[in-house]
């Protein structure tokens, strides 16, 4: 069997997320598998590293698929980019060893959250960032972010449907960077629960607006209650940015 | 009379350009005048510096309007941004002397043209740049651009409908900058004819693709024939970037 690794970029705006759902549901995995199966000549499944949520974007999603047929990476890339919609792009294709698994082998992921923090909207980024009119206090947000670092049970930061053996995830770093009206929040961790990044950013926004004290975060995490994290930040501001193997 | 100067930003994607047309036509001037007239309490006309074409964007459009009523700049800005669609933003309002005229007093304009020059599309910039798959030769384009500098009769670089007393315009500089897959072309001049920037960029693209020699440009300009400039570059890659007074 040949195993191909794909780097994929997408504007998640009009999709119901990465993961294939039923027939005819508009998902990124579904779109790619449809075109890929045409190329391979038989139904072909693709394994994505992260099941990004409806409306969430990817600067780099990693995926892999196996087939008994040999193709050049360039031919796969050209075919997919020719037939995929313009909001999904395959930016790299590599042949990898047969045991490579895009999800199981991921060691570290980075998510980027973009906030547009001016009074007026940004006409060009209105679908690619969350607009918050009131000035956010970055210093408070950085203090709050420091409480997320390390391994914690993040039950409070996921939704009620999530059932995993362990709710412990480790956050390696959170960097908040202000740049020409944007506040970019980069969260790096070993793995993330469903909705976890958007709920963490939701709390950081509450802190930045002065509605929550930074030192309340350890209490929210410890309480493991899902209704204390503030509103979940909008999907359109979130990007899967990078995956380390 | 009070005279207010506005700096305006817009995503021109879904508009028929800046200039107000008949009733119900979707134009940027029309949208702003509608909301502004509500604020002022009487029909109020706004003068824009540049009549950007259908689909063309503005990072900074300058406009002004006069009224006998006094408002704070901040109140005007808040009202407009509250009622305007999200793809039009007023980013600054200033009170100016009664003789200021956004169009007549402009001394210099800068247009930015963005080309995405990779094989695959850019999912996030597909509506904000022109996609050219084949690699462009920047050195040739820079050589070609140098022939546009100076005062020339740009009849060849406008469309047949354009009737102006003089077709002479002066180009001060053209800078071509490559950056992470984008080729950004900045054209600075005293004024521009209808479609002139997109036709100039069209020629630069032909040169970059090797379909036209740089030294053919003086001949194209001199011939004053409109069918020799190559295809007009797409509207979605063009931004009115800056206006000097």
From TrEMBL, chains A, B:
CDD domains attached to this UniProt entry: PseudoU_synth_EcTruA
Active site: 53
NCBIfam families cross-referenced by the UniProt entry: hisT_truA
Keyword tRNA processing: yes
Name of encoding gene: truA
Reactions listed under catalytic activity: uridine(38/39/40) in tRNA = pseudouridine(38/39/40) in tRNA
Any GO BP: tRNA pseudouridine synthesis
Protein source organism: Mobilitalea sibirica
The Pseudouridine synthase I TruA alpha/beta domain, residue ranges: 8-104, 144-245
Gene3D superfamilies in the record: Pseudouridine synthase I, catalytic domain, C-terminal subdomain, Pseudouridine synthase I, catalytic domain, N-terminal subdomain
E.C. designation(s): 5.4.99.12
GO-annotated molecular function: RNA binding; tRNA pseudouridine(38-40) synthase activity
HAMAP family listed in its UniProt record: TruA (MF_00171)
Subunit structure: Homodimer.
Span of the signal peptide: none
PANTHER family tied to this protein: PSEUDOURIDYLATE SYNTHASE, TRNA PSEUDOURIDINE SYNTHASE A 2
Pfam families xrefs: PseudoU_synth_1 (PF01416)
Binding site for substrate: 111
Record-stated family: Belongs to the tRNA pseudouridine synthase TruA family.
Annotated protein name in UniProt: tRNA pseudouridine synthase A
InterPro entries reported for this sequence: PsdUridine_synth_cat_dom_sf, PsdUridine_synth_TruA, PsdUridine_synth_TruA_a/b_dom, PsdUridine_synth_TruA_C, TruA/RsuA/RluB/E/F_N
Function: Formation of pseudouridine at positions 38, 39 and 40 in the anticodon stem and loop of transfer RNAs.
Keyword vocabulary terms for this entry: Isomerase, tRNA processing
């Amino acid at each position: 069997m040949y195993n191909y690794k794909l780097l994929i970029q997408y504007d998640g705006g009009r999709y119901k997320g990465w993961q294939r759902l039923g027939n005819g549901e508009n998902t990124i995995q579904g779109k790619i598998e449809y075109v890929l199966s045409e190329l391979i000549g038989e139904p072909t499944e693709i394994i994505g590293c992260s099941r990004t949520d409806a409306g969430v974007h990817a600067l780099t999603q990693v995926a892999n698929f196996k087939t008994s047929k040999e193709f050049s990476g360039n031919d796969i890339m050209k075919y997919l980019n020719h037939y995929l919609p313009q909001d999904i792009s395959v930016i790299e294709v590599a042949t990898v060893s047969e045991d490579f698994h895009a999800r199981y082998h991921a060691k570290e992921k980075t998510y980027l959250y973009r906030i547009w923090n001016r009074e007026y909207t940004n006409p060009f980024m209105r679908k690619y960032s969350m607009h918050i009119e009131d000035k956010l206090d970055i210093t408070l947000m950085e203090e709050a972010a420091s409480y997320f670092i390390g391994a914690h049970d993040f039950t409070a930061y996921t939704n009620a449907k999530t059932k995993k053996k362990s709710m412990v995830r480790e956050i390696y770093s959170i960097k908040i960077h202000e740049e020409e009206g944007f506040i970019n929040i980069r969260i790096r961790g070993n793995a993330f629960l469903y909705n976890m990044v958007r709920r963490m950013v939701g709390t950081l926004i509450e802190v930045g607006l002065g509605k929550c004290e930074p030192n309340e975060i350890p209490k929210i995490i410890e309480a493991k209650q899902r209704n204390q994290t503030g509103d979940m930040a909008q999907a359109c501001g979130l990007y899967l940015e990078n995956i380390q193997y």
